[in-house]
Amino acid sequence: MKLPVVTFPVLIPECIGLNKTEFNRPKYLLQKDFIAIVNGHKHIIPAGIEFDYASIPRPFWSVFLPYSPLYAGPSLLHDTCYQGMLWSRGLCDRLFLAGMISNGVDALTRNTMYAAVRAGGWINYKKRNLPKMPIVRGLMGIGQFTAVPLWDEV
Known about the structure:
Layout: E1 6-7, E2 15-22, E3 25-30, E4 34-38, E5 41-45, E6 50-51, H1 69-84, H2 89-103, H3 107-128, H4 133-140
Antiparallel strand pairs: 1-4, 2-3, 3-6, 4-5
Helix pairs in contact: 1-2, 1-4, 2-3
């Protein structure tokens, strides 16, 4: 499996907690545009995106926290990619893994989290995120019916 190269000029996205949850996980609002560089292409995740950091089920929080500075950026990129259906689900998941590698997440944590999104991400990719797609694409200035890939080729 060939992974893209993903880096983040800023490690932690600027966000605020929202007074709501989704599927028993707290939600956050991105306050300032966040940049992800994928294979040398700059991608801007716009302020206004709602996300939950890592979508880790509560029973596993004692082992894998839903928030870590090392996977905050990769989680935001992954959530945005899923919510906006910006690329294929497989590529969104590989971006998540590549971002965690770039940020120095240990192998056990990143491989477990990657396996979890591969195993269960299909639930969120279409079913739960379909209503969010026009909102995310609108924030990004992308048409709702624009075909993928929506950002520069990776």
